[in-house]
Specification:
four-stranded antiparallel sheet, 4 helices, 19% helix
């Protein structure tokens, strides 16, 4: 959807397929999608859908250059011709995902999207995931783990199913029309 909006605004871009690496113990399929936007002679990495460590803005497609977005520090590393996105954590650089530099067609994304949306083992089918960037940081809910990482507020705790609706409303501004299956008490 974001790619379609950018194209409608006149931007040239490539869809890039990626393998999520967080928590991976074996190779994973290309189920992530990021954008390489061609902007005034530069290439920009734009990714609006990557969970708790989501990019809060664009990154320059330059390898081995540390780039800061909000309170997060990222870098792209050339990994055998692919782009490895890393996030600096207190324990060092943590691999986020690996992007194939060859552009994908929309039709090529359908299989990954189908898996992510429907397969019982897909993380998207197993747990709730919500992310809200804020002016001074971000808030995320992954399963039952609430993380608020803002300039004036730090929270990292497990919420109960009974708290879920209130947390979604108060932290993310979301009101559910009906209970979600993963929030059943």
């Amino acid at each position: 959807l974001f790619a379609a909006v950018l194209r409608a605004l006149g931007y040239e871009l490539d869809l890039l397929a990626g393998r999520v690496l967080i928590g991976a113990t074996a190779p994973r399929p290309h189920t992530h999608l990021a954008l390489r936007v061609h902007l005034e002679g530069e290439e920009i990495l734009s990714d609006v859908g990557y969970g708790r460590t989501a990019l809060r803005g664009p990154l320059t497609f330059a390898t081995d250059v540390e780039q800061t977005l909000g309170t997060d520090r990222f870098r792209l590393v050339d990994e055998d011709g692919e782009f490895l996105l890393e996030l600096l954590t207190p324990d060092g650089w943590e691999a986020q995902y690996l992007l194939d530099p060859r552009p994908e067609y929309v039709v090529d994304c359908e299989m990954g999207n189908h898996f992510v949306a429907t397969h019982p083992e897909s993380t998207m089918k197993q747990r709730l995931m919500v992310l809200r960037p804020t002016a001074t940081g971000k808030r995320s809910l992954g399963g039952s783990r609430l993380v608020v990482d803002e300039a004036d507020r730090q929270v990292d705790r497990v919420i109960t199913a009974d708290e879920a609706e209130a947390v979604l409303r108060e932290e993310f501004g979301l009101v559910l029309p009906a209970p979600l299956p993963y929030l059943e008490r």
